[in-house]
Each structure stands twice: as C-alpha cells, then as structure tokens.
Amino acid sequence: MQFDLCCASHSDPILSANLAASPLVAAGQPCHVERGAASAGEAYNRLIDRTEAPVLVFAHHDVWLPEGWQHLLAARLAELPDDWALFGSFGVGLDQAGIGPVWSSSLGQIVGRVPMAPVAVQSYDELLIVLRRDAGLRFDEGLPGWHLYGTDITTEARARGRGAYAGALPCIHNDRYHSALGADFAECYRYVQTKWRDRLPLKSPVIKISGSGLHLWRGGWWNRRTVGIREGLAVGVDHPPAALAARCGWASVWP
After folding, report:
1. How far is residue 137's CA from residue 149's CA, in Å, rounded to a whole number?
2. Where are the domains of the chain?
3. Are 137 and 179 in contact (CB under 8 A)?
4. What is the CATH code of the structural domain delimited by 4-248?
C-alpha cells in the first residue's frame, strides 16, 4: 500500500528519537517534515500539497511506529467501509468511548479500547491521523495553533457525509506531561465551538465542546484538582520507545 508519512516538527531531537527512529523509516520509508508553520492546519495543508500518495499518515514527532506497522495499517484500511475519509490510532466514539489502543507516556498506560472492527468516531487524538486524499479534505487554517484540529477535521468529514473511524492500530506516543490547558487551547476551543455550533456537543479526547463553554472552565478546574495524580502517572520521555513497545507487547505488530 502506498502512503506518505507526514509530520510537523519544531524539535529535531524529539523527531530523531521517536518518529524518525521507527523501523519503517529506518528501512527507507520517507518522512516528510514541515517546520516553522504557525498552525497545524497550515503545516498539514503544505504537506498535502507537497505529497502525492493516495493515503497520508499525519503523525506527531513524538510518535514511534512498531515493526510491521505499515502492514498492519494496510490491513486496517482494507477493513474500512467505502465511505471512509479518515482513520486514526485513537478516537472518541459516538458513545464517547476511547477507541484504539495506544501507549501514552504522559499517562503512563495504554489507553483506548481494542475494537474487533472499525468504529465510527467524532474526534481524534492528533497523535496519528490517516487521511484518504481523494476524500478532498483539508485542514482548517483558520483554526489557530495546535489543538483540536482532530476534532475539527472529523466533524468536517462527517458533515460531508464521509466516514471517520478508529481501530486497533497501536503505536507509542512518547508525549510529555502537561499540567494544564493553556490560553492557546482556550482559543482553539472557542473557534471550534463557534464553527460547529449546530453540531454541538462534540467530545474530544481532552474535553467536551459545548454550546455554553462550561466544560472549558470545568476542565481547567479538574486539571488543577488532579495535578498530583496525573504527575504520578506520567513516566517521562527518557525511556526508549522501542522498550516501551516491547513492554506493551508491540515489539512487532505484523498482521
């Protein structure tokens, strides 16, 4: 299966230690990297325009893909209904359940259900999103910064009558712990809240987007209340991602 691996990065050391160290990249799979963009939408649309493959895999620079991952991707995409436009390693189902097993270093655990078949979702964790080029989707460059673009593009696909799914496509997200949602997150929240007002509520992996915006305040309150617990869960980013994958049973994920 032909696909292009794409990444927006601001740190060569993080990229080199994670996504660029993935076995498929080491074996010769090109990784197209965009640097210096003002937003995820700007970076990812540049990557859409720079590449030609029928399938695009947008991955964070702190993601590591296990041995055989590209073959598992092909198997998972073959399971999808014909209407699919998006697929992801972790999404939020229409019932608000987390779908798709991934390791998160910031949470110190595997998160997401292991579905037996693709599950329709309303949003993605942006760690890894697969886009079908002929669906004609682009990322919204009006959405500022680097948050909630997984929710936005999923809602866009569904508004066009196209399918967005998640499934069992494990990977390592060697992400750093963050204690709170910043002002930049609030700006993205309000943008999505206004843009998709007629489709609210929407549940992202981080927060519910509601018409009132109450959940933005509630999320900040909850983060303050649980900071000690969440700090205790995080394992840091000094563990080699290959070792984390082995601990998860994902040293190889050949289908």
Report:
1. 12
2. 4-248
3. no
4. 3.90.550.10
pTM of the model: 0.96
The tokens describing 179, both together, are 């204690």
Report d(CA 181, CA 66) in Å as an integer.
30
Q: Calculate helix-pair angle for 149-159, 40-50, nearest 10 degrees.
A: 60
Best CA proximity match to 14, nearest among 61, 65, 66, 64: 61
Q: CA torsion 200→207→66→240, rounded to 10°?
A: 160
**Per-residue pLDDT reduced to its tens digit, 194-211:** 999 999 999 999 999 999
The answer, yes or no, to whether residue 192 has pLDDT greater than 90, is yes
Residue 219's pLDDT band (boundaries 50, 70, 90)? confident
**What span, in angstroms and rounded, lies between the C-alpha atoms of 115 and 167?**
6
Tokens matching residue 192: 């999505």
Look at residue 178 and tell me whether its pLDDT is greater than 90.
Answer: no
